Amino acid sequence: MASLLLSVCLAILTQGSPHLAVGFDPSDLAGGTTRQDRRFSEVRTGVYRADQPSQGYTAQLDSTGKASLLMGNERVDLRTTVYGWGNTTYTVNLPSTSSSEDKRGNSLVKFKRGDLSEWFVNEPGGLHHWLQVNRREHTGGKLWVSLMLSGARGVKTLSDDTIEVSTAEHALSYGGLHVWDAVGRALPSRFDVSGSTVKIVVDDLGAKYPVTIDPVWTQQQKITVSNASDDDQFGYSTA
């Protein structure tokens, strides 16, 4: 009944009012947040910060190329370090950083790194991390992008397209991995985890570049246990 009432209200609001319909995201209304609640602000030169009310963290991006998720006294940092094909590695440049909006009006920050670019889009369901590789620079092997995590207590693979990143009090999901090429063809991909290094591996055979990679950060749960210690590995037995 509630969803029917919501649909009727949206139809009344948008009928004959194209300016209201353009870029309107019903999930904003359903989730009780607005784009303004999630907007990135430049808190100091080259450092952007935005709340993620539905997920319980604050995202911070800076001109060193680091993305941070802040949760009270805890934080998890993610940085793209290198990429390549097969055994050939290419370094990642320091980014030029800018903020803008996507086509739906969601706030984003872009890291321009030459042939590899990143966007962080603060959407209702979480912080999307977009990576785009503009061209294939080597003829052999699969495409891969390597990222370094810090501040995490544990990192484990839940499936090919999702990993879990845990701190003492929080369990985060970095997943929903989708990869496609310039003509929209979906490309097989997976996460490989080794310690604090996360590698995204893409089978780009026959792909038309640029290739776009899109995982998203969400919070699975807040861990609460009165006697947890560093050796407990609390919460690791369930996905």
What does this structure look like?
With 239 residues, the chain is mainly beta. Helix content is 10%, strand content 51%. The protein is built from three helices and 17 strands. The strands form two sheets. Strands 1, 2, 3, 4, 5, 6, 11, 15 and 16 form a nine-stranded antiparallel beta sheet that branches. An eight-stranded antiparallel beta sheet has the order 7-8-9-10-17-14-13-12, with no helix packed on it. The chain is globular and about 45 Å long.
| Strand percent estimate | over 45%
The mean pLDDT is 82
Structural class: mainly beta
Helix content: under 10%
Figure out the total of helices. 3
Radius of gyration: 19 Å
Strand segment count: 17
Low-confidence parts, pLDDT < 50 over ≥5 residues? 2-31, 225-239
What does the overall shape look like?
globular
Largest sheet: 9 strands, antiparallel
C-alpha end-to-end distance: 33 Å
**Would you list the SSEs in sequence order as H and E?**
HHHEEEEEEEEEEEEEEEEE
